[in-house]
Amino acid sequence: MNLNLFEKTVIVTGSSRGIGKSIAKTLISEGCNVVINGRKNSDLKKAQNEIGNNVKTFAGDVSDPKICKSLVKFTVKTFGKLDFLVCNVGSGKSVPIGKETPQEWNRMLSLNLSSVTNMIRPSIPHLEKSNGSIVCISSITGIEYLGAPIAYAASKAALNNFVKSYSRFLGGKGIRINVVAPGNILFDGSVWHTKLKKNPKQIKQFIKKEVSLSRLGKPEEIANLVVILGSEISSFVTGSIIVIDGGQTRS
Q1: Which residue in the list 152, 175, 217, 243 is annotated as catalytic?
Q2: 152 is annotated as an active-site residue
């Protein structure tokens, strides 16, 4: 199937490792021009070497609106346009339930919601020109309670609601926006990688009990879905929250 993504220009935030890096790799395989983003330039250079040609790097924290504006400006100056935005920045590391402080709530909302809204704002004029699309990476914890830190789950629920609501506004500009909500994904340095090292037997039992497919997901599986959503194949899909969790959620 031809996704017609050749020479499309894409920004992938939070792409120095894990899901974001896998998304960038898949986009490159489809012939896209890709700008990867992360906070550390050294990590981005390492990822760039692994991903291949047509990849540019931009270091900066996208919870800062000024950084987002500069990232979009850099991309358009380098490649002449912007066709597809992937918002992958986020973190699930928070405090146990009941231990949240005002500062922690703000930190989680900044990482998991503001990092998206800040990127979208300066991207809109360029995506409108290209009839482009946006995919935001959320989590199944934003859909139902699964034991994750509440501040994280609430910030992902807010992201889901934002995308659902904002899709109507963006649709009027010819821009599609969707959410991909992954379940438990395994890669080097991930939370599940650490958990498996510490207690493999317990984790394997948990996965067998809670996940219909009885395994953890792979970054490549998330990447494939994201790339399809960003392509013309999904031209009538917007405002959707698409779960990819091996059958873990029940709602």
Answers
A1: 152
A2: yes
